[in-house]
Write a sequence for this structure.
């Protein structure tokens, strides 16, 4: 494993029998409360990852508190990034979770540097910061506090309802800095959800999260993603989803079709072959040339969705974003650079937060570039 990139010191005390003893790894643990998961606790050299200047992402920095994700979405296109740690992109991605135990301490140091430009920092761009491990390690309260106290705008994208725990901290942070919150959900059928997102809270629980954020006065943009061709793109399903999202009080919504990047494609197609063999030829055609659906499908989906957005009062912005939006929504969603962010998911809201790309270069000095495989994948 390429643990050297994580090391701060030379502690080596892998406590799990059979686990390799690796420099930089503090210990590997399995605990009864989290059956099937192994946590590899590391001390990280840095917290802030710099987004490459040529990226379409509208934020210049990211933080990943974990690598690997127990939410275990079959279609997750962060899977491939686990191979940088010499784990596999399947079961290991779901169950071998790297935890940056010192991330808050390192972040506070980085934010205190005089050169820190207080630019938008995004969480949830590679793996989910509110996956199950967060219940044990409680890293996010410290991250939120450090960002807010330093005057740094930030955004969080998640499928994890554990975010509810931190609503009071987020309300407090919102008094100090611009922030954006995003929740992704798309699969409403229980059986499909269990098969494709086995570790993710149910869509209903995520709707409750959106509602709780709205009631707390916080913004929340919903990514209706991934829409699965032939499985969840029928009018009735989209209508029900958009109606529920609107009723929950989302500040915006963006509809995004499935992408199949290498690393996710193999796992998803294996599932499709066994669960829906009749759809295999269609998917092979749709994703024959690239990870994204062809323009024709994208256009077809946009046309189908447009009247539904209008019906539910979510059509005040072009491109599928949303009521309450007050300025241009940046494009460059991780994994799909062609679509925009739903209103509420970026720290804008009429306040500073998303900086024009051409101004980034001068402001990207303080943090080190991301380690290979660290970022820019998720939805
Ligand atoms: S899609 Fe998001 S929530 Fe699902 S496994 Fe990947 S990182 Fe985790």
């Amino acid at each position: 494993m390429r643990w050297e990139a994580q090391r701060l010191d030379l502690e080596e005390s892998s406590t799990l029998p059979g686990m390799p003893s690796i420099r930089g790894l503090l210990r590997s643990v399995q605990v009864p409360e989290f059956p099937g998961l192994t946590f590899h606790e590391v001390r990280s050299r840095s917290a802030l990852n710099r987004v490459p200047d040529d990226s379409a992402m509208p934020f210049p920095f990211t933080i990943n508190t974990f690598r690997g994700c127990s939410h275990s979405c079959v279609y997750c296109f962060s899977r491939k990034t686990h191979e940088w740690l010499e784990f596999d992109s399947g079961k290991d991605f779901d169950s071998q979770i790297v935890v940056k135990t010192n991330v808050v301490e390192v972040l506070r140091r980085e934010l205190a540097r005089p050169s820190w430009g207080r630019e938008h920092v995004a969480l949830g761009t590679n793996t989910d910061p509110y996956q199950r491990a967060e219940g044990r390690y409680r890293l996010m309260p410290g991250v939120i506090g450090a960002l807010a106290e330093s005057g740094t705008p930030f955004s969080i994208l998640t499928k994890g309802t554990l975010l509810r725990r931190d609503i009071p901290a987020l309300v407090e942070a919102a008094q100090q800095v611009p922030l954006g919150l995003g929740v992704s959900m798309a699969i409403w059928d229980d059986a499909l959800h269990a098969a494709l997102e086995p570790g993710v809270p149910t869509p209903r629980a995520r709707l409750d999260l959106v509602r709780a954020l709205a009631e707390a006065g916080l913004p929340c943009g919903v990514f209706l993603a991934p829409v699965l061709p032939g499985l969840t793109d029928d009018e009735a399903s989209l209508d029900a989803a958009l109606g529920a999202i609107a009723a929950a009080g989302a500040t915006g919504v963006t509809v995004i079709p499935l992408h199949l990047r290498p690393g996710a494609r193999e796992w998803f197609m294996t599932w499709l072959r066994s669960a829906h063999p009749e759809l295999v030829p269609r998917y092979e055609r749709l994703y024959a040339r690239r990870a994204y659906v062809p323009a024709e499908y994208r256009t077809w989906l946009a046309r189908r969705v447009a009247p539904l957005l209008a019906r539910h009062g979510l059509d005040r912005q072009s491109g599928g974003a949303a009521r309450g939006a007050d300025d241009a929504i940046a494009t460059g969603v991780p994994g799909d650079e062609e679509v925009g962010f739903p209103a509420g998911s970026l720290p804008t809201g009429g306040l500073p937060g998303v900086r024009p790309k051409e101004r980034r270069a001068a402001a990207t000095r303080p943090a080190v570039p991301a380690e290979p495989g660290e970022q820019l994948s998720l939805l």
Q: What stands out?
A: The pocket of iron/sulfur cluster is lined by residues 69, 71-73, 76, 78, 127-128, 159, 200, 378 (CB under 6 Å). The chain has one domain: 23-363. The longest strand covers residues 179-185.
